[in-house]
Amino acid sequence: MTQFSGGEGGREGGGGGELVSSLSDGSICIKANAQSCGECIQVSEICGWCTDETFLSEGESKSARCDDVSYLKKKNCNNIENPRGRTDVIQNKSVTIRNKDGNIKLKPEEITQIQPQKLKVTLRSGEPQTLDLKFKRAEDYPIDLYYLMDLSFSMKDDLENVKNLGTHLMREMREITSDFRIGFGSFVEKTVMPYISTTPARLINPCSNNENCTSPFSYKNVLKLTSNGEKFNDLVSKQQISGNLDSPEGGFDAIMQVAVCEVSQIGWRNVTRLLVFSTDAGFHFAGDGKLGGIVLPNDGKCHLENDVYSMSHYYDYPSIAHLVQKLSDHNIQTIFAVTEEFQPVYQELKNLIPKSAVGTLSSNSSNVIKLIIDAYNSLSSEVILENSKLPEGVSISYKAFCKNGVQGTEDNGRKCTNISIGDEVSFKISIESQKCPSGGKPEVITVKPLGFNEEVSIELNFICDCECAKKGEPNSPKCHGGNGIFECGACKCNEGRIGRECECSKDEVRSDDLDANCRKPNSTDICSNNGECLCGTCECKKRENPAEVYSGKYCECDNFNCDRSGNLLCGGHGRCECRKCICDANYTGNACECSLDESTCLAKNGQLCNGRGKCECGICKCEDPKFQGPTCEVCPTCPGVCTEHKDCVQCRAFGDGEKKEMCQKECSYFNLIKVKERKDLPQPTDQSFPLTHCKEKDANDCWFYYTYAITKNSTKEVFVVEKLDCPSGPDIIPIVAGVVAGIVLIGLALLLIWKLLMIIHDRREFAKFEKEKMNAKWDTGENPIYKSAVTTVVNPKYEGK
Predict the structure, then answer these.
(1) 557 Cβ partners below 8 Å, 6+ apart?
(2) Which parts of the sequence belong to the Integrin beta subunit tail domain (predicted)?
């Protein structure tokens, strides 16, 4: 048997002795005012009950035993009753792995597709229990298919194609499963007016135009489920068309009978059950029977006599909800094979019936086999979980883990799609109870995949009382002479008795004599105005914040009115008891504000407050007004360390500087050590005390380097580089050569630029001349002052001879 246990809830308290000032989950337990352990654990999963007899302080009520578990521990409760829920797996048979072509043929009841099969869940109010469920589609799973056909006159041509359906469908379904059975039924309409004509002739043959039709009927089971396809063909071929008057048919009556006449008449097995509903018309449903004078609601029972529905004239059509319930109860998946005209109607019906499908039937049903195969593949590729009715106060939620990493929550947490044969999916189911049901008796619920005969049985047990209550002592002398049951460290009073020890009767709760016991000496306030006097004993008020408590014989004490520091109760370094701070170690003061730890006052040189102040309550009080800061090391008006000691170092190391004349008198307060190079100076990482590196300049602009430090024994040490770092004079020749060379280069550069500009200018002028020359046009006429040197004279006697 596998067991899963629930975890514990808790409330974290404030650190450093500070009480939690904000409202927390623990207030749920306090506000419930639980008077017994059983009442306490029903409030919330985080609530526990302290069973220590001496747990309550003076003035605390019995309900103070009920609080957040972690808070009870902080109040030093040693025995806490805090029962937890659990999940036990009772039956956990592995899912079946088989092959259709294998030699071993299993019976339907030997095939397992869902795991586990039986669990026992123990629930505590408010604490959810989670269980894992696995589903795997088994290969070669048996199938029962019942073909329910409308045999009204409009389906005449369809009947011809269905007559050979048995062998053809059997052959196709053998590709899916080796164990397939098929049955056949037909329906027309209720045999009363106005659905059919009740004239004698029409009752014999309801068809006109000399058509040979059979008498009208509501539903007829022609062939119970069989593996003999030839028998199906033979019986279906003998069927005749009938007729009715109105367009909607009585198919719902037939579906109800097919569903509820389960084994003996229809022959359903506990396997995949498919119902193919074939029609070319709409349907009647609950209430339509009134047209024929039928008012009794459908009773959802089997009424087949000689395979014919005998009570169609007595009971109304079933409602859609009634059909959904019966189809689900009997794990029947419905395939609506309807003509295109009625597709919208049956699509809406499909949305109301889980695990159903709609296919478009051709006008003569020639495509019915393909329609059935496609619809079956669609239905079987989807698994949808449903649960039976839950007990009052119990809720259930699902989370699906489907193929390819797809997850679903809320409504989609119940289903997985696109599941192929052999695929495995899982679901995480969370069950939670909000209260203990009346009686507290175990309840059994089931979770099953729609359309499958397998289910998971879950026995729910409820934790309604604590284990310690079973050991209670009735009429205990601890309860004021037997006025209650002493259980779980407290008295559970008998009817009519109250008080922590059941010492009072409800009729005598208040009286002047009893009230006198609730007043402090020389005071007129009852219970210090912080409580109520019950049976002569103060029962202190409860605060909104459960961490804040009144206590004391007269409720004169509390744990929240102590002095504060830094807006923290007792400075965050103590606890408040009866309005006085009890400080933690190393703290003192009215509000525990004063720390006795002097580590916060240590300066970098290891001295308390740098030797210039006193450490009080962990804070330096600087005595020298020039110094300030947390350790009196900051001096805004003081020169720096390097500037302060510059003159003394200069005079002692180099015999120079402003203090040259008074060097021996004023500069002997430190030890001087000379080093050859700067790299030989001590580094901060080499010392265990503060060290300052200095770089200073003398009157000749020479640099000198030194370090200043105060050792642990307060000795002042100065390390100085013995050689000054003086800058060398400038080299004149390179400077002059550089200047001359620069002037020459600048001149050459200017000449080159001028020459380049002149070339560009000349080329532009020449190009302009060439362009004007090309564009010039000369006058080709004769010069008016030009005279030719040749004179031509014509002989007048010459006639061209």
Answers:
(1) 59, 550, 551, 577, 578, 579
(2) 642-731
Q: Which residue(s) pair with 672 in the sheet?
A: 718
Answer yes or no: is 304 within a domain. yes
Cβ–Cβ < 8 Å for 558, 551:
yes
Q: At 516, is the secondary structure helix, strand, or coil?
A: helix
Do 306 and 216 fall into the same domain? Answer: yes
Domain membership flag for residue 156: yes
Look at residue 272 and tell me if it is in a domain.
yes
Res. 696: pLDDT tops 80? yes
We report the CATH number of the domain holding residue 370 as 3.40.50.410
- Contact yes or no for 163/156 (Cβ under 8 A): no
CA-CA distance, 205 to 243, in Å (whole number)?
A: 8
Structure tokens at 205: 């043959």
Is 572's pLDDT higher than 90? Answer: no
* Spatial distance between the Cα atoms of 349 and 352, rounded to a whole number of angstroms: 5
What average pLDDT score do residues 5-13 get?
39
219/323 same-domain check: yes
Give the range of the structural domain holding residue 627, as residue numbers without chain letter. Answer: 597-636
Lowest-confidence region among 160-169, 294-303, 489-498: 160-169
Concatenating the DSSP letter of every residue in 553-576 gives TTS-EESS-S-EETTEEGGGSEEE
CA–chain centroid gap for 382, Å, is 25
Specify whether 207 is located in the same domain as 343.
yes
Which of the listed residues 581, 616, 636 is the one where a domain comes to its end? 636
Domain shared by 399 and 360, yes or no: no
3-state class (DSSP) for residue 583: strand
The dihedral through the CA atoms of 44, 47, 51, 56 has a sign that is: negative
Q: Identify the CATH number of the domain in which residue 582 sits.
A: 2.10.25.10
The domain that holds 660 is classified in CATH as 4.10.1240.30
Both structure tokens of 462: 């409820």
Look at strands 671-675 and 716-721 and give their pairing.
parallel
Q: Calculate mean pLDDT across residues 52-56.
A: 86
For residues 253 and 186, give the distance between their C-alpha atoms in angstroms, rounded to a whole number: 11
Tell me which residue has tokens 């200069």: 650
The lowest-confidence range among 238-247, 372-381, 430-439 is 238-247
Q: Let me know whether 131 and 169 are in one domain.
A: no
735-779 residue pLDDT tens:
888 899 999 999 999 999 999 999 999 999 888 888 888 876 655
Shared domain for 280 and 414, answered yes or no, is: no
pLDDT at 160 over 90: no
| Overall domain count for the chain | 5
Whether 284 and 410 map to the same domain: the answer is no
**Interatomic CA distance for residues 295 and 297, integer angstroms:** 6
Rounded to 5 degrees, φ, ψ at 59 are 95, -15
Whether residues 705 and 582 share a domain: the answer is: no
Mean pLDDT across the chain: 82
Alpha-carbon distance 83 to 122, whole Å? 10
Q: Is residue 515 part of a domain?
A: no
Q: What is the CATH number of the domain that holds 121?
A: 2.60.40.1510
Of 606, 636, 666, which residue is a domain's last? 636
DSSP SS3 for 384: strand
Q: Which two tokens stand for residue 291?
A: 């047209």
Q: Residues 361-367: contacts with CB within 8 Å, 24+ apart?
A: 361/158, 361/278, 361/280, 361/337, 363/157, 363/339, 364/157, 364/158, 364/160, 364/161, 365/155, 365/157, 365/158, 365/161, 365/162, 365/278, 365/337, 366/161
CA–CA distance, 186 with 241 (Å, rounded to integer): 10
pLDDT given at position 27: 67
CA–CA distances in Å: residue 343 to residues 158, 319, 339, 577, 673: 17, 20, 7, 79, 108
